[in-house]
Predict the structure.
Amino acid sequence: MTAPISVVIIAGGKSRRLGIDKRKLLLANGRTLLEETVARLTRLSDDIAVVAGFGEVLTSIQGARIYSDQVDNAGPLAGLAVGLSVVRHEFALVVAVDLPFLDLTLLRWLIAQPRDYDLLLPRHRDGRCEPLQAIYRTTCLPVIQNRLRLGQLKLLDLTVELRVHFVDEVDDVACGPDAFFNLNTPEDLQRVRPLLACTHGLDWYNLCQLCYRPDQPGN
């Protein structure tokens, strides 16, 4: 039987390239992207922590506890530090909030791998790694905190200090090519349009205000 696992959702960032707060995108099912991410991941874990950016206060989300980065302008490493400091289980699946096509089959497979690592890191055939759809052990926390103090903020640089299990089979296990797709630019919105609530045929660079909730969650 697989031991329980926590989930950390990294939900900070300025969404500068996208131009809007991606957390608030309204999906066709009536949830925002952040709400949907939490709802899907409750199928995998009884312990979900959402970590917003420095100084941000998110409204409550059913099924999750809300925290904020403690270090400003430190990127996802700051959110990872907070998340691993508050989770209730020894291991945590860490994902970014901008992954609209999360593949639960893939995530369950990752969770089921033997936990003989500090970091379980998916790696594609072309060598790209996915540090924001990976599993971290809470014992990583001292290394992460030290790198924050030193201003060494690149997530992948953690691999030189941690016991890492690279998972090279992810492209075979994933149900589709979009399992690791992240939403960063206005052009990316076209790719996720079938998931969104808008049916108004508008240019998504000027997002339909009926389909974007500036009052949900994040104010």
User: Anything to note?
Assistant: Residues 199-210, 212-219 have pLDDT under 50 and may be disordered. The chain has one domain: 6-211. The first helix runs from residue 33 to 41. The longest strand covers residues 6-11.
